[in-house]
Design goal:
The protein has 13 helices and 10 strands. The protein is an alpha/beta fold. The protein has 2 domains: 220 residues, TIM Barrel; 53 residues, no CATH class.
Length: 280
């Protein structure tokens, strides 16, 4: 069975929903997010993990969609999480990855056609990011600022403190020819300004989307990772100035192949944003 995970490549927003709250699954799917993440890991307390696993398995078996974040291989819940998902092709977000072998091992236990979104949220993972992103079956990297900040002893919301690690994930994704990675969470649920600042910062570093913790964050994130009208006009003007592809000038700036390529990427990003929807 062949599964199409192309929607994950263009997703701007992935909204978490706790696996022990099945009443929220459909609401999350209708939130306007480009995808949802059904969580069995940090959002679910240990006594509720078995229930969360059952809820998610039922949702998927009945045709529901979503990425499933599972517990990491060092935990007592990992094997049960994987067993629940093995019946059908699925998209799995693997928490606390430290090495590419963990991604290989997981893919070997999932149904053919499955994919993994490695969650880069440890120092070891950040330093091994290119190898992790290069595993066949890894479709997009995700940056985990909260756990990495805890490990490093810095504030996960401090943009300067986390900038180097974020850039490592962006570079690794590009080197592995993956789509731009998904940025981590903004834990200030009701602070729209903070979500905007965080999203624009991540987009400026080369991220292509962001994890969301609440539906109210979704429209802010979608806007930040979609080209603005000004960006689209600039791209159109660049292509018009470039004409046959020779070096030209636009508003006093040189327009060469790298600039033209970037303009084409902006217009492609606009088209992907228009096509993004929740049927994942």
């Amino acid at each position: 069975m062949t599964a199409d995970w192309s929607h994950l490549a263009r997703a701007r927003s992935l909204l978490f929903v706790p696996g022990d709250r099945p009443d929220r699954f459909a609401k999350a799917a209708g939130s306007g997010a480009d995808g949802i993440v059904l969580d069995i890991e940090d959002a679910v307390a240990p006594p509720s993990k078995a229930t969360a696993r059952e809820n998610i398995g039922r949702w998927l078996a009945n045709g529901g969609a979503g990425v499933v974040r599972i517990n990491d291989p060092s935990t007592q819940w990992y094997d049960d999480d994987v067993a629940m998902l093995a019946a059908r092709p699925c998209a799995v977000m693997l928490a606390k990855v430290t090495a590419p072998g963990q991604v290989w091992e997981l893919l070997g236990r999932l149904a053919p056609g499955s994919c993994v979104l490695p969650l880069i949220e440890t120092a070891a993972a950040a330093l091994e990011a290119r190898a992790i992103c290069s595993v066949t079956g890894a479709v997009r990297a995700v940056f985990g600022n909260a756990d990495l900040g805890r490990e490093l002893g810095v504030d996960h919301a401090d943009l300067a403190a986390m900038a180097a690690a974020r850039s490592l994930v962006v570079l690794a994704s590009a080197a592995a020819q993956l789509p731009p990675p998904i940025d981590g969470v903004t834990t200030a649920l009701t602070d729209e300004k903070k979500v905007t600042i965080d999203s624009e910062h991540a987009a400026g570093l080369g991220f292509g989307g962001k994890l969301c913790l609440h539906p109210r964050q979704v429209p802010v994130v979608n806007a930040a990772f979609s080209p603005s009208a000004e960006d689209v006009r600039w791209a159109q003007d660049v292509l018009a100035a470039a004409g046959d592809g020779s070096v030209a000038a636009l508003d006093g700036y040189v327009v060469g192949k790298p600039i033209v390529d970037r303009a084409r990427r902006v217009l492609a990003q606009e088209a992907r944003a228009a096509a993004s929807h929740i049927d994942n």
